[in-house]
Structures are given as structure tokens and as C-alpha cells.
Amino acid sequence: MTVFHARLAARRAVTTALAAGATALAAFVAPGIGAAQAQSHVPASAMVSAGASTTAAATPLSDTAALGKLIFNDPSLSASGRMSCASCHSAAHAYGPPNGLAAQLGGADMRTQGTRAVPTLGYVLNRTPVWTHVQAASVFERLTDADSPPAGGFAWDGRFNSLHEQALFPLFSANEMANRSPADIAAKLARAPYAARFKQVFGETIFASNDAALRQAMMAVERYELEEPSFHPYTSKFDAYLDGKAELTASEMRGKKLFDDPNSGNCASCHIDQVGANGAHPLFTDFQFEALGVPRNPELRANRDPDYYDEGLCGPVRTDKASNKSYCGLFKTPTLRNVATREVFFHNGRFHTLRDALRFYVERDTAPQKWYSKDARGHVVKFDDLPAAVRDNVDTVDEPLTRKAGGKPAWNARDIDDVIAFLKTLDDGYQPRAQGAKVVKVSAALKRP
Ligand code: HEC
Ligand code: HEC
């Protein structure tokens, strides 16, 4: 019952549209994101190469965004008084988690574990399309190439269509910032050192309504997330390479070929690495949903309950698509920019090194016993983090996920080394060694709080 049969063909069509870059994407951009953001799709590095003397980092934030930055970094907005957005989305870690925990600890006591790994906020904030699933009009279309996987929306399951809507979730989530009511947060905002500024920006009477104060605070966070250039600095070696200002080493280049090759890693079919038609640098995601069958993670306390399964698109965190069983097990493809700086991988944080994440891709099917648990009779339970009834949703048609047990993995250890070398070129903050006239000025935006 694999549902998105024609994934390959469909994916290629969508990929092309996405690779067309800002122009194509502008049409998908969430409501409320205006022309200013459409422009920010052009990488800072492109501006540098165009000879502009200032990078995007020099543009000051609007008043609303500056307020949003204070809110984003304010731990007093949590029940514990110790957790802000930045605790989990750390600027020094490409707005990903500052540690290797599978899921962070939060709540009023700072000991309540979440259920998912913290994704990076880098690059995706102003480029994530709204959630869509263009469904096949007929069985024939589904079997040919008109059916494409769902795409877009914020969070691993795409359940939020805007950043202001998303920002409410961690504020109230019992295992994150754990506030109880809008009144709770409004009172904290009214006591914050920036309360006077909040009134200046949103009006003297803003604190008269808890709901209005909360709504404006979320709009401010959204403005910050969209305006702050360090969320998408485009200062990696790969960006310099695309601009013709750096050369990849033999190992990096070999890694790129393995990453791109449809008969080998085939990674670029989902983690897009082509430049868009207008020169926009790639984000290494197509924002589509896939079930990869990542193994169950015993580090998650929720998994102590053998009947608990995080099935992504079909729930239980997302609630509006529970009836569509073809959605079970699907999670959104994350960007791979700055991925080598992470210490935790995949939605359930199952892996803690990039090497293991890559080995999983190429050995999932050739050596499943390495990755999955065994049942009472000693049989390997492939795709053990999904209920048996929906395991058929897991992708077994896209390379390198098509092999047979005992077969040859798509990559050997050296191949994996090379792909890691390539993925490291996606880390921001690349400082080319002085090369005379070829010196490139890269903004150190990421290092700024
Ligand atoms: C306790 C850690 C934690 C805190 C605190 C936290 N987040 Fe997150 N954030 C996460 C996790 C985990 C996810 C993935 C959630 C999911 O898939 O359900 C996430 C997802 C997101 C996303 C979606 C990213 C994407 O690519 O779709 C955004 C945006 C975001 N957080 C912004 C914020 C903001 C703004 C705040 C503060 C109001 C915040 N976060 C506080 C852990 C945290
Ligand atoms: C069919 C689409 C698809 C293909 C092909 C694909 N990926 Fe992914 N990738 C995903 C999805 C979806 C996830 C998230 C899955 C999850 O967490 O359950 C992901 C997650 C990852 C992660 C974890 C990133 C993070 O922030 O946690 C890495 C690393 C990664 N992929 C690398 C690769 C490499 C290397 C290849 C090629 C061997 C590859 N991917 C091929 C869709 C794909």
C-alpha cells in the first residue's frame, strides 16, 4: 500500500519548480509574508558577489523585529524562568539545539522531556511553503506521475502555516515554556524590561487585552524571524564555491557527486542542492514529507509506552490528518545547511553523529539488524518506530532505500567520509585563507546573538 508510488517522477517536477528559486517560491510563501521577504530569498553572498559593499547583516531590524528579538531571547516568558526560544534554537548552533539531547528538557521544573529533536531555524523561516498536498485526481494519475507527496508548513509535521501561529506552541507546551494562559504571558510581558518599548510599538493600551498583547508579541517574533539576517547568512564554503570564490577539495567534490548521483546516494532528489533559475542558492530541502523509517529511540521517555508512536503527519501531535493513514510516518525533509554542526539527527533524535545518520541511509535495507530492535521471537522488526499497519508507508522506492538484506550498501566507509566532507562545506562562517585578489569578505553574522 505504498501510496506515493510515482514519487520519483513527481518529485522531479516539484524539484524543478523549487529550484527555480525565489520567483517560483514567492507564490507559495505564507500569507503575511510580503515582498520584503521575497527579496530576502536572494542570498547575501549573491549581494557580495554583485559588488555591494554592505551585506544584509548591516540592515537594521525594524522596531517590531527588534522587540521580537528581545522576546525570542527572554527566559522570563517561561514557567521555569529559565527557558527562552533561544535555549533550544541557539544562535551559536545555527539556531539548532546547543547539545546532543534527543529532545530537550523543559516545563516548570526543567525536567520534562519533549518528544522531538529541535530542528534548525536556519534558512527555512522565510522559505517554507504553506502546507499543501496536491492529490491525484484519479487512480490513474496516482499510478502515473501526477501524485506528489505533501509539502510545507512549520514543524516536523507541517502543522503550522505561519510563524506567529507556530510561536504560540512552545510558549504553552507543558514540556517547553509551559505557560498556562495568555494572561500568564501578558503579565510577564508587562513586567519585562522592554515593556515600555512594547507600548511604544503597539500602543499605550496594548496591555489592556491579554489576547492582543500575546498576538502582537507573536507578530513581533515572526518579524524578527523574517528580518534577522543571521537566520540565513549564506556564508558557507559551498556558497563561496557557487559564487566561484572557493574550490572544493577532491574529497568534497567526490562527496557532492555521491550526494547528487540518482543511482547512488540520490540525496539531492530531496535535499536540493541546485542553484535556482534566478541564482538563489539552494536550501538542501524540498520541504516535502517522506517516511524514512528511522528506528525507535529509547532515549525518548514517551517511548517507554510500547503503544506510543510518533507518526508525524497523521498524529498524534498533529491532529487534523489523523484519518489519512497514508500520511502515517511521514516527516518533513529538513535543510542540511549547517547539519555537520548538529549532535542530534532526525525527528526523534535517534542518531548523534552525522556518520551514523548516513550509515543508516545506506545500510537500512542491506543490514537492518544493525538498526532495528528484535521481537520476542528474535526477528528484526524493520521500521520499529511505526505501528505494523502503516510500515508500508516507508519509502522503499527512492535510492538508496531500495536494496535487499545482505546486498551491497550504496556507499562504503570512504564514500561516507567524502559525503561528510561535502556536507561540512554547508557550515556557515567559512573564512577563505587570504588569496590575494580573491579574498572574499564573508559576514560573521551567525556569531552575533
Ligand atoms: C524546549 C525546546 C524549544 C523551545 C523553548 C522552543 N522550541 Fe521551537 N522547536 C522545538 C522543537 C522540538 C521543534 C519541532 C516541533 C515539532 O515538530 O513538533 C521546534 C520547531 C520550531 C519551528 C519550526 C521550524 C521548521 O523548520 O518547521 C520554529 C519556527 C520554532 N520552533 C520557533 C520557536 C520560537 C519562536 C520559540 C519561542 C517562542 C521556540 N521555538 C521555542 C523546540 C523548542
Ligand atoms: C526521499 C527523500 C529523501 C532522500 C532521498 C534523502 N533524504 Fe535525508 N531526509 C529526508 C527526510 C524526510 C528526513 C527527516 C526524516 C525523519 O526525521 O523522520 C531527512 C533527514 C536527513 C538528515 C537529518 C537532518 C537533521 O537535521 O536531523 C540527514 C543528515 C539527511 N537526511 C541526509 C541525507 C543524505 C546524506 C541522503 C542521501 C543518502 C538523504 N538524506 C536522502 C528525506 C530524504
Question: How would you explain this protein's 3D organization?
Answer:
By secondary structure, the chain is mostly helical. It has a domain at 30-233: Cytochrome c-like domain (Cytochrome Bc1 Complex, Chain D, domain 2, Orthogonal Bundle), CATH 1.10.760.10. The protein has helices spanning 7-19, 22-26, 35-39, 44-49, 63-72, 85-88, 139-143, 163-172, 182-191, 195-202, 210-227, 237-242, 250-260, 354-363, 413-424, and strands spanning 105-106, 112-113, 289-290, 331-332. The strands form 2 sheets. A two-stranded antiparallel sheet has the order 1-2. It has a two-stranded antiparallel sheet with strand order 3-4. A hairpin with a 5-residue loop joins strand 1 (105-106) and strand 2 (112-113). Helix 13 crosses helix 15. The chain is globular. The structure holds heme C (2 copies). Residues 265-267, 269-271, 290, 292, 294, 331, 333-334, 336, 339, 342, 345-347, 357-358, 361, 395, 398, 400, 419 line the site of one heme C (HEC).
Name the descriptors.
single chain, 449 residues, mainly alpha, Cytochrome Bc1 Complex, Chain D, domain 2, two-stranded antiparallel sheet, two-stranded antiparallel ribbon, 4 strands, 2% strand, disordered N terminus, disordered C terminus, binds heme C
